[in-house]
Amino acid sequence: YRIREVETVSTTCPHCGTGCQIDLRVKDNRIVDAVGGDGPVNHGLLCGKGRSGSIDFVHSPDRIRTPLIKNKETGEFEEATWDEALDLVAREFTRLRDTYGPQTLAGFACSRSPNEDIYLTQKFVRTCLRTNNVDNCARVCHSASVAGLAMTLGSGAMTNPIADITGDVDVIMLVGSNPEEAHPVIGMQIRQAVQRGARLVVVDPREIDLCKDADLHLRVRPGTNVAFANGLLHVMIAEDLVDHAFIAERTEGFEAMKDLVADYTPERVGEICHVDPDMLREAARLYAGAEKAPIVYCLGVTEHSSGTEGVMSLSNLALATGKLGRPGCGINPLRGQNNVQGGCDMGAQPGDLPGYQKVAADGVVEKFEQAWGVDLNHEPGIMATDILAMSARGEMKALFSYGEDPVRTDPDTAHVVKAMENLEFFAIIELFMTDTATYADVVLPGLSFAEKTGTFTNTERRVQMVRQAVIPEPGMRPETEVLADLMRRMGYPQPTLTPAQIMDEIASVTPSFGGISHERIEREGGLQWPCPSADHPGTPILHVGSFTRGLGRFFPAEYRPSAETPDADYPFILMTGRMLYHYNNGTMTMRAPGLAEISGSSYIELNVDDAARLGIPDGGRVAVSSRRGRIETTARVGTRVSQGETWMPFHFADGAVNELTNAALDEYARIPEYKVCAVHVEPV
Ligand code: SF4
Prior knowledge:
With about 675 residues, this protein is an alpha/beta fold. It has four domains: about 10-60, N-terminal domain of TfIIb; about 70-135 and about 340-450 and about 470-500, Rossmann fold; about 145-335, 3-Layer(aba) Sandwich (Dimethylsulfoxide Reductase, domain 2); about 570-684, Barwin-like endoglucanases (Beta Barrel), CATH 2.40.40.20. Bound molecules: iron/sulfur cluster. Keywords: 2Fe-2S, 4Fe-4S, Iron, Iron-sulfur, Metal-binding, Oxidoreductase, Repeat. One of its GO terms (biological process) is formate metabolic process.
């Protein structure tokens, strides 16, 4: 790693999955400013997180700067050399693997790290821990998209490019997504599209700001997405708004789908979802009647115990109306973390090797055994949420985590703490001493996005460069070097490769990345996979002509209520979400003084009528409790949420909302139900 003598370094934003290009101004090895770069998505735009939140954390005095080993006697961390720390990690993982078996070990990859780091993390888990128990944070955000879109279309990714769905379109169907806060540059572009004349249908329990410009706001009750989508399809079929030729030529399973939605009359769905049946009819007509109408969605669809079925239900709408494989349409999940797309693409999934090559498919593991020169485990691994559940039961012995903070970010904190405490050995790579890192036996210092080189893949499958802007402090090492060192200490002959060489290895074993290299990305400014060969231009729109799985498949799903619904003891529904000023657990954005000043502590949104009944004023302190925990926070009283519903941001340590949330899991993707749990609220 050598820093180029430049004052401006163009790189990719380390926050959300939009993938904005950002120009870092560097002076005396410090980032002094960040401005919007001319990227294919942002065209010079940046939000506050990219502008302010990308600087201060890099140089924060709180950074972990040296390996740390926990003293078993005192429970305190003590500074160690890299040799001491890596020897201990290698020794303990080897001992526990050989004592209890590889299936009692697991690894989490970091979806904020570059593709090259993620690839090497999953390679470490598979070759050295000898298990496929490797996962990434998509498990708790968009695993339902990966599963649901793969089952219906064949590829678990956004079908169309961002410029396409925010450009010259007729109708935008925005479901369970608040892009002006969670993906602000895409949010701005959607607003601009509406100002140019696109019609907007918002499907969301909350009154997000885009509702003011929407033609329709269907304020569905949380947890009723499947019923909503079935109701829309019922109307489309009843009013003959579907595309018969597309259904006949390119899909399968329509008759079973038609039978299922026959019972989802607008009146019945109106009762389930608490919406006006005529608004359902109007939404169906608007969407089905438009030539260009993308479905754009986010965690309001996925983070349910029926999350995968929610995704597939949206897919059914696009299949029925032929809105796939062409510009301005498709079904488009907005991915949360900067490189959570890469987390999945690079094989940090228990069932998939890089490029979604299935562990269970004939010949796939054998191919990687040949490429990597080692025997591999042939059993699909365990998903992250099940890994934590196993650990809580005492069945998981050791965990390697790179940049994940499940104690703060996974549901039901008490359950996660128990999982952490039960581990016999836990090693973590981190920038800061997070809630999760405090449970580790060994903490290894990580490098920020500004201190290393690699690639991030944004929500539209575009692989873009991450360029080193500042030289790390003495003694800090890039994770690719650390992982290779650790692999050698565990007996696997992994050479220390440059990030460009690692990408070449990725291309050699991953057909969808076969034509991607750093040299090409530098020259062409980003490539959208699949890009199978050096002369392939990349694929902006998926499923043109045929679906990745051949025929698109309708998936009939019945509506099921959420795992926990309100009752006399816990009468409110609690939803959670991201806000404009912060990013996930806040380790980066909370260190930006401007952002922390604007928004420094948690709050709960309450409906004005509920607040009046409970005697809670705007700004009053409240206690919020669920069957799993109790927190105190500040009330924001208004009409953003409906009566009987509440909402909290998930970023904060004070009033940490995951003390309350429910770890009920979706059947297919094992994603937790962050978006619906039952709570009690009272003034304090
Ligand atoms: Fe960064 Fe996302 Fe903001 Fe763009 S929209 S600057 S990628 S946080």
